[in-house]
Amino acid sequence: MTGDDSQSDTEEFRTSRRKRSRIHRLDVSSLIGRKLVTLVLVGTLVFLMLPIFMTIVASFGTTWTGVLPRGYFNLDNWLTVLGLAEGVGVRQGVISGLAFSTLLATGGMVINVIVGVPIAYALTRYDFFAKDYINTLAILPIVPGIVLAVAFLRTYPEMGGSAFGLIIGYALLKSPYMVLTVQSSFQAMNLQQIEESARSLGASWIRTFLTVIVPNAKNGIIAGCIITWTLAAAEFNFTFMVHARGPRPFSLFLFENITRSPVLQGAAAVSVYFAIVTAAILILQTAGKAGFTTVEEQ
Asked: pTM to 2 decimals?
């Protein structure tokens, strides 16, 4: 064996050794990284979900003097909060108020879909004069509810206290969430190519938009519906300023039970909100998936 061959073998050995060492370090780093990310994720979920879990558990208790509530599986708090119990101080008409709030939030959500989806499409699909300014105006209502309530009452005083005024206010206040969420879905699509393909097959623009563009953005639309509905249902500042008569919206229902009732009744009121929101999310997801069908799913 010559000196050159020996030197070449030595270099190959060193290169192979460095590669094995690098692969080993990558394997160890990847393994530790996965465990660390999983640990952080689980810890974050526990931290966020624990207050919700404790609130729901406490709503079925009778006393809460220590770390954990006591006397579980008691429905008195729920019955009192929902106005189904008998006694002094039990509020009546709670169920009608919850139904009223559901209709208000749904009305605002529907307006956001009708108005927000075309706005998000136009801002994503076309380039036009002052596009950036219009995009800013589209998300401008994302301000505290009390600010919008004062401006709303000053501009439309005749709508103050009416259900229609609350619906319009909810739609205006939560519209940026719909526009931004749907806009993200449209930005992930090649809108020009999809539109040109559909139009080349003889579809009109409106048919292309309703049967091709919108179904492909269904995830963003469903997410926008969920966000706008849940935020509108619990909107307090705007509701407190504008509402004057009729059934109490849900945010005022929460406020009264949290500030003027025992702790466990307040926990029951919050649990009612979680139950309604969970049901609304499931309904919106089911209805959205059933209502939109893309070409790939057919």
From this structure: 0.78
